[in-house]
TrEMBL record:
GO terms for molecular function: beta-glucosidase activity. SUPFAM superfamilies: (Trans)glycosidases. The lineage of its organism: Bacteria, Bacillati, Bacillota, Bacilli, Bacillales. Gene3D superfamilies: Glycosidases. It comes from Jeotgalibacillus soli. The keyword Hydrolase applies. InterPro entries: GH, GH_1_N_CS, Glyco_hydro_1, Glyco_hydro_1_AS. GO terms for cellular component: cytosol. Transmembrane segments: none annotated. Keywords: Glycosidase, Hydrolase. This is 6-phospho-beta-glucosidase.
Length: 466
């Protein structure tokens, strides 16, 4: 059979942001506090509840007030889709109310209407690293089974409200990041002397049940919708060919794929029992939990891919492969933030995942964060173009390998606050935002060189990458 390396005609090109990293307006129009509002140093350093230091999430890049201008620029690039999230605490400020906040609902009505005006389909993440703080502090977050009820009430509210506007949904952002950033990834606080993995896996089970119930509800309310799972799945290789390195890397990878195994296959894999036994984990399940998880699996797997790393046997395991630095790979170059650039690794991961699940894949995050400089009124970010170009070429190879890829949403098409570090200096966008790490700037938008390059990529459906 003759095949050419090309993207499908209906390939979904676009970009992705998160509400907490872009919107700002953190207490405007009735919004409540979320976990992100209390992390001035980024998600990796956790909650700083009483900190008086500058928190860039509070204003971010003011997408809340600039969304029309920004969406017009996304449309100019030719976006087919745009991934964003709904801030749970805009809809239910404390998370456990019975009546939603109408002002919050109106904002997303307006946002989705603006996207659809330009023919851009919204892809919406329901919970993206910003659980309402009240649910976490007062109710234990996802360690508490009652959080399932609050989440499903939230889901029913937004499914019903936006059923004619949103067809692509994602339950949780990078659900496996509950291992490395439990407060952001899973809305839980690990107490002193608490069995960390017990807390993580119990919370994960509650999130799995919630995911199944949300998928069921979504399919009932929006019959033509697709509900996806989303994981952090940057790649990992053994540091050497020593069998210990190889097998421990395999075990490490399974700790990530455990989450997609449950969400896409619908069953708990047998290998998890040894991990639970080793760490004294006893997950409490109720009634028809396993039946629900089995019956209502995700329609597609969205994942983030930024880099790869290597693992050496004996190196402490934080929990999964997407959120660790690991041992540097001497064959790869790195970004200015130390993330190793590995486009071939993206092809590898695409094949790894499609071989495992045979469900559509969506590269929902991929991008390069760096310190852009304005020179004579321009930003010539050839390094970003080069980064994306090599990754798109490997995506073509993956498609030729037989992988079913739905789309590609570049992470941070407009500069946003970095999730990991809480700063604006680490920029991803095709669009520069005049705001710095001290919170100074005009919020003026400026196109970078990569803006027109990505526009050409979309216009040619990925045929022209030069």
């Amino acid at each position: 059979m003759n095949k050419t390396k090309s993207f499908p005609k209906d390939f979904l090109w676009g970009g992705a942001i998160a509400a907490n990293q872009a919107e700002g307006a953190y207490l405007e129009d009735g919004k409540g506090l979320s976990t992100a509002d209390l992390m001035p140093y980024g998600l990796m350093k956790g909650i700083q509840e009483n900190s008086t230091d500058l928190n860039l999430y509070h204003e971010a890049v003011d997408f809340y007030h600039h969304y029309k201008e920004d969406i017009a620029m996304f449309a100019e690039m030719g976006f087919k889709v745009f991934r964003t999230s709904i801030a749970w605490s805009r809809i239910f400020p404390k998370g456990d109310e019975l009546i939603p906040n109408e002002k919050g609902l109106e904002f997303y009505d307006n946002l989705f209407d603006e996207l659809l005006t330009y023919g851009i389909e919204p892809i919406v993440t329901i919970s993206h690293f910003e659980t309402p703080w009240h649910l976490v502090k007062e109710n234990g977050g996802w360690k508490n089974r009652k959080t399932i009820d609050h989440y499903i009430r939230y889901c029913e509210t937004i499914f019903t409200r936006y059923k004619d506007k949103v067809k692509y949904w994602i339950g949780f952002n990078e659900i496996n990041n509950i291992h490395t950033i439990p407060t952001a990834g899973g809305g839980i606080l690990i107490e002193e002397n608490e069995n960390r993995l017990q807390a993580i896996y119990q919370a994960s089970h509650h999130m799995f049940v919630a995911s199944a119930l949300a998928t069921k509800l979504c399919q009932e309310i929006i019959t033509d919708a697709k509900m996806g799972a989303m994981l952090s799945l940057s790649g990992v290789y053994p540091n050497t060919c020593h069998p210990d390195d190889v097998f421990e890397t395999y075990e490490l990878r399974r700790r990530s794929l455990f989450f997609s195994d449950v969400l896409l296959r619908g069953t708990y894999p047998s290998y998890i029992n040894r991990i639970w036994d080793k760490h004294g984990v006893q997950v409490k399940m109720e009634g028809n939990d396993l039946e629900l998880i089995k019956k209502h699996t995700a329609d597609y797997l969205g994942f983030s891919y930024y880099r790869s790393t290597t693992h050496k046997a004996g190196t402490p395991i934080l929990g999964h492969t997407g959120g660790i630095t690991g041992t540097p790979n001497p064959f790869l170059e790195s970004t200015s933030w130390g993330w190793q650039i590995d486009s071939k690794g993206l092809r590898y991961v695409c094949n790894e995942l499609y071989d495992r699940y045979q469900k559509p894949l969506f590269i929902i995050e991929n991008g390069m964060g760096t310190n852009d400089e304005i020179v004579n009124g321009e930003i010539n970010d050839d390094y970003r173009i080069d980064y994306i170009k090599v990754h798109l070429k490997e995506m073509k190879e993956a498609i030729d390998d037989g992988v079913e890829l739905m789309g590609y949403t570049y992470w941070g098409p407009i500069d946003i606050v970095s999730a990991g570090t809480g700063e604006l200096k680490k920029r991803y966008g095709f669009i520069y935002v005049d705001r710095d790490n001290e919170g100074k700037g005009t919020f003026k938008r400026l196109k970078k060189k990569s803006f027109n390059w990505y526009k050409k990529v979309i216009e040619t459906n990925g045929a022209d990458l030069e």
